[in-house]
Amino acid sequence: MKNKLFRKTDLIIILAVALAAVAFILWQRMGDTPLTAEISVNGKTVESVDLSKITDRVEIRPEGAENVLIVAEDGKIRFEASDCPDKLCVKQGELYRKGDTAVCLPEKTVITVTGAELDAVTY
Fold first, then answer.
1. Which terminus of the chain, N or C, has fewer Cβ atoms within 10 Å?
2. What domains appear along the chain, each with residue ranges and CATH number?
3. Is 88 helix (H, G, I), strand (E, B) or coil?
């Protein structure tokens, strides 16, 4: 008997898994809610930024942490500069999903991205 690389049932299973993956990705993207970035210094929220309305570059120097530069653009937010020695907050990169968080410990500054509802990532 001759062995084939793929049988008919193998192709059906592969197609079913691929369709399920595409459906899951589309379902995740359709449920997008407006995102808000909360900037906190010393545990107090000093600024809220509606990321869904940000298209141009917006520079933020939070009150109480003037040595920190936060930049929001194209629906994303990030630490761009800080006086902290290790620059871990800057290396964290862009935040653009619910539950994303970046912290600058020396400056006691936290950026948290929130949405309208809880999901498995933010819970």
1. N
2. 36-114 (2.60.320.10)
3. helix
Nearest-angstrom CA–CA distance, 68 and 119: 30
| Joined tokens for residue 48 | 């809220």
Structure tokens that stand for 107 in this block: 């400056």
pLDDT in tens, the chain (123 residues): 566 777 888 889 999 999 999 998 887 666 557 889 999 999 999 999 998 888 899 999 998 888 899 999 988 999 999 988 899 999 999 998 888 999 999 989 999 998 865 555 544
**What is the distance, to the nearest Å, from the Cα of residue 105 to the centroid of all Cα atoms in its chain?**
19
Assign 24 to helix, strand or coil. Answer: helix
Burial of 32 (0-12, 13-18, 19+ CB in 10 A): exposed
Within 10 angstroms of residue 50's Cβ, the number of other Cβ atoms is 12
Residue 53: count other Cβ atoms within 10 Å of its Cβ. 11
